[in-house]
Amino acid sequence: EAPMGDLVLRTDDDGIATLTLNRPNALNALSPTLFIDYEITLESIDAESEKTGCVILRGAGRSFSAGNDLKAIQSG
To answer: Residue 27: is it exposed, middle or buried by C-beta count within 10 angstroms (0-12/13-18/19+)?
Structure first.
């Protein structure tokens, strides 16, 4: 898994923020650390809301997201 801070990538272009779930080897399964990165990223967009008019959410690799990371749920 990518280090915290690298699980949700953000690029900005002319008022459009593109967020990329960045766990392609796990089909972008939603882990607790990914959710933390996602929340931090959304808070930064909210803090600059006058600069962003649109947010696009995508997944890196061949899958948008496989859903919840079952291994992370099992480990607590």
So the answer is: middle
Residue 46, judged by CB atoms within 10 A of its CB (0-12, 13-18, 19+), counts as exposed
Summarize pLDDT for 20-50 with one digit per residue, the tens.
999 999 999 999 999 999 999 999 999 998 9
Contact 52, 17 (CB under 8 A): yes
Kindly report whether the global pTM for this prediction surpasses the value 0.85.
yes
Give the type of residue at 18.
T
One-character DSSP codes across the chain: -PPTTSSEEEEEETTEEEEEE--GGGTT-B-HHHHHHHHHHHHHHHHTGGG-SEEEEEESTT-S--SB-HHHHHT-
